[in-house]
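User: I'm curious whether this sequence folds into something compact or stays loose and floppy. Could you predict its structure so I can see for myself?
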Amino acid sequence: MRFVSAILLSIPEMRARAALLGVLAALMATGSVATKVSAKAACPAGYSCKEPYPLDGACQHPGMVLDESAKSERYESDPFAAVVEKACLAKMGPQAGRRGGELRIKLGDGAVKLYKDNPNKKACERGNSEACKSYMLYDYFPEARAFLVHVMSYEGDEWLLVRQQDGKEENIVAPPRYSPGKTWLASVFWTEGPSDGNNGIDIVPANGGSSEPAFHYRPDQYELWEYVGWEGDDRLSLKVTWRPKPESDLVDWPAEVVRINGRWQLRRWPPGSPRP
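Assistant: Here's the prediction. I'll summarize afterward.
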């Protein structure tokens, strides 16, 4: 069996996501009263809620609870804990495994792709994100034959969709959702970081061998993109919080990414105006 090493693109430090993970850990440590909620439940008045990562893959993840003390929504346990990955790997059989600090993914041609943790604490403290990365198998999408790998680094993280047939990696902003016909995978996420690689929109073919063009969008100004829902396989509805003009206040506009003549197009329009 031959082996190939994973080569990852460097990304800006993602302080906003790290802060979110810190808040998550703090909330889980409070032990305050919490009530389980469904993934589609509306946020109660007076609460600060954040949509959980989608659950379209094969692996199980912690559910969401309403924290009565903090008046916010949180995961009932750490979604990045080793026990979560262990349960996911148990479903993979020979397709994926872990040997200590090494995540191993078996490709379609029999090769094994390695993701080696590099927990160099001193380098991390000096701000060298490449020297302190760790890898977690977060999910697997059987129809797409794609592994979702979460990469944690110094003050940030990233998501890699790894195609099983050839080991090709695609950077996406968050765990993706299938379109209704499972033709596409869409990933939408926002953070407050000014140059955060996890802020934007991705739409990629569910079939890694497809010649259909993918869509990747990373804003170069202050824009917060939120997932609304798929409308068929060719239209993704969104909401964007942004400033239409530099001097404008922040506003919420409806938006969409629609596939026209085989190409994805991003469109937004003022509230109350007809869809383009």
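Summary: The CA atoms of residues 63 and 97 lie 24 Å apart. The chain is about 10% helix and 40% strand.
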